[in-house]
Specification:
Elements lengths: L9 E6 L4 E5 L5 E4 L2 E4 H4 L7 E3 L5 E5 L3 H7 L9 H10 L7 E5 L5 H10 L4 E6 L2 H15 L6 E5 L12 E6 L4 H10 L1 E11 L2 H13 L2 E7 L6 E3 L4 E3 L9 E7 L5
Parallel strand pairs: 7-8, 7-10, 8-9, 10-11
Antiparallel strand pairs: 1-2, 1-6, 3-4, 5-6, 11-15, 12-15, 13-14
Bound molecules: S-adenosylmethionine.
Length: 262
Amino acid sequence: MSAPFEPGERALLIDDRGRRFLVRLQPGGTFHFHGGAVPHDLVLGSEEGTVVHSTTGAALWCLRPRLADFVLKMPRGAQVIYPKDIGAILVEADIGPGNRVLEAGTGSGALSIALCRATGPEGKVVSYELRADFHQRATANLEGFFGKVPAWLDLRLGDVREVAGTGERFDRVVLDLPEPWAVLPDVGASLSSGGILCTYLPTVNQVQEAVLAMRAAGYEEVDTLEVLVRFWHVTERSVRPDHRMVAHTGFVTVGRKAYAEP
Ligand SMILES: C[S@@+](CC[C@H](N)C(=O)[O-])C[C@H]1O[C@@H](n2cnc3c(N)ncnc32)[C@H](O)[C@@H]1O
């Protein structure tokens, strides 16, 4: 991470008004924006934190993107999970090194990136996606973030219900799809006793149906939450919340699978 920028890497370029651009660096390439053009070769080989200047003299600060920067800037097929909610999912579903995680749908791959970082190579992430175009988009985004698809990630094109026929077992299941209750019997069978099931849903009626289905299936400690984040404007003259915020994204629900006699 402390090495100079290399060909093929993504750089986050930030102008003097805080506008952010995600650029894949290629020798001989040029980045064009409202402030002129920047040869990629100015960034390549320089240290992170360097300031480069465009052909018209506009300054751009060069950084490696954080996961949150990458997720908000990467090309999307399906709607991504916002970074604030990714954080809540990782903590509430207690996803950490070594966990075996089942995910669906992969969508654009935003959550898959975070899951892979959380489990690390000693864990495993299996992610199902119904749509071939989204599966391809997610694959490209995972390659873009990590350089290549992590060896511990298995991106599968298909219905997550197919996991029931594989005999695989997981410690965690994360479902970001519209009707989690419809896949619950199949994915639930692959979740270990005491394991955590997490759903991410945009509306309260979906949450209610999911929670009732989880309780009926024997899940305990079922909790639902949402995350409201307000950024603040801080200067010498004034300190106040930003005028605008992302008011609603989705609800996170988690529950733990109860032991059942085989
Ligand atoms: C909102 S997107 C997921 C976005 C993803 N979490 C991200 O952060 O990029 C929901 C995805 O679930 C997929 N999907 C819906 N039902 C599915 C199923 N039964 N099995 C696998 N994927 C499914 C859809 O095709 C869609 O791409």
